[in-house]
Write a structure and sequence with these properties.
- It comes from Spongiibacter nanhainus.
- By secondary structure, this protein is mostly helical.
- It contains 15 helices and two strands.
- A two-stranded antiparallel ribbon has the order 1-2.
- The chain binds zinc ion (2 copies).
């Protein structure tokens, strides 16, 4: 076929116009049977036998271990490399991630990288929100869709991780072991096997499944977009509560290399807290953070975009030209801030390079006095305070723009 005849964008094609791919029976039976037991078997047992607090405790502990292995392990560690982790923590995530039954780390993370790269594309994003809520929640796993076919060309780094490959090779036995063993151990210890198999076994699996699936579905439909409107991802505080902090999905899609999803101090992101506290124990390190200035820059850019849209809708309004003038002045200032920031970043890199060279020299000649700590420290402080000033200026600009958009509402 002549490539020129292909549509310019695959987003414009109708994906369901042809026959649907074959149903994947194993997944379909797994999702529906566990859901049926959770919806009917669990309440029935609760009414006829009652549950003990130990049953609920077991449920909660295994659920959190599952959920955090997906968010901190599968997602922020393996799919995005936002930090490094000790092998013991990686092993924990690999084991309890298998219990969550969402495929091996390798398959999950390579699919997720495709989701970020081709977000919303109906053919290349494995769980494109543009194909609807059902598809992005669970539909994409029920049929053999081409976008979900194994392709590890974007996951060479993961193929070098022995824990990832061990889990991938032994995935099915690990799924069985990690789904049954905790509930079985609790059941044998308390003499109440049925209760723990239902709560820590089945109900935990269903809750763990759907809370993670919410990130692909609801977090692309429902919420605000403070950082970017170039994709469907949303920030949603309520979803963050159920997803260990992954509800700040708009932030995550623009800054996927940040180990945090909820960046504001008040945002509920237990995954971020886990990664940070593990760093105090030496279990995680190299935690990646996006500089504050870049975050503010994204927010202010969105404010400009919205203010301009509002202004366009007020054509003919006597205040419109005054508002336009104000906006233009603000925009000039914004551009100046960005230029200053670039200059500071460059200066920062240069002092860093100079410091490394000086350290090398001092080491080579064993003459520590050659290395002028004082000058470097002074330069560092000067740049840092300039950076803080700029961050503050952007914050003030954001506030002025917020006030302006309110005024135009
Ligand atoms: Zn992600
Ligand atoms: Zn997403």
């Amino acid at each position: 076929m002549d490539p020129q005849q292909q549509p310019a964008s695959s987003q414009q094609r109708a994906p369901d116009s042809e026959a649907k791919p074959p149903l994947l029976w194993l997944q379909t039976i797994l999702f529906s049977s566990t859901l049926l037991i959770a919806a009917i078997g669990v309440p029935w047992y609760g009414i006829t036998h009652g549950f003990t607090w130990l049953g609920w405790l077991g449920f909660a502990v295994v659920l959190v271990a599952n959920g955090m292995s997906i968010t901190a392990g599968y997602h922020r560690l393996w799919a995005h490399n936002t930090y490094k982790a000790h092998w013991s923590l990686r092993l924990f995530f690999a084991l309890f991630g298998a219990a969550a039954t969402q495929n091996s780390i390798l398959i999950w993370a390579s699919g997720h990288r495709r989701h970020h790269r081709h977000v919303d594309d109906v053919e290349q994003d494995p769980y494109s929100a543009k194909r609807g809520l059902w598809f992005s929640h669970i539909g994409w796993m029920l049929r053999d869709y081409p976008a979900s076919a194994d392709d590890f060309s974007n996951a060479r780094d993961l193929q070098r991780d022995p824990i990832v490959m061990w889990q991938h090779r032994h995935y099915l036995p690990l799924v069985l072991l990690m789904n049954i063993a905790p509930a079985l151990a609790l059941g044998l210890a308390t003499g109440n096997l049925a209760e723990h198999l239902l709560l820590a076994g089945v109900l935990r699996l269903v809750v763990s499944h759907h809370t993670t699936f919410f990130i692909n579905s609801l977090a692309h439909f429902w919420g605000r977009r403070p950082y970017t409107d170039e994709n469907t991802a949303r920030d949603n505080d309520l979803l963050a509560l159920f997803t260990y902090g992954e509800g700040y999905h708009n932030y995550h899609h623009i800054f996927q290399n940040d180990y945090r999803n909820g960046v504001r101090w008040w945002q509920y992101d237990p995954t971020k807290w886990l990664i940070k506290s593990a760093s105090w124990l030496g279990l995680t390190w190299d935690l990646k953070k996006v500089p504050d200035f870049k975050i503010q820059r994204a927010v202010v850019s969105m404010h400009f975009k919205r203010a301009e849209q509002k202004l366009r809708n007020r054509k003919g309004d006597p205040d419109a030209s005054k508002l336009q003038e104000f906006l233009e002045q603000e925009y000039q200032q914004f551009r100046q801030h960005l230029q200053d920031w670039n200059a500071i970043s460059q200066g920062w890199m240069e002092t860093k390079k100079a410091r490394l060279a000086a350290q090398k020299e001092a080491l080579q000649h064993n003459l520590a006095e050659q290395y002028d700590h004082l000058h470097e420290a002074w330069e560092h402080t000067r740049l840092r305070s300039r950076l803080k000033e700029l961050e503050y200026a952007l914050k003030m600009q954001r506030k002025r723009l917020e006030a302006l958009t309110l005024q135009m509402a």
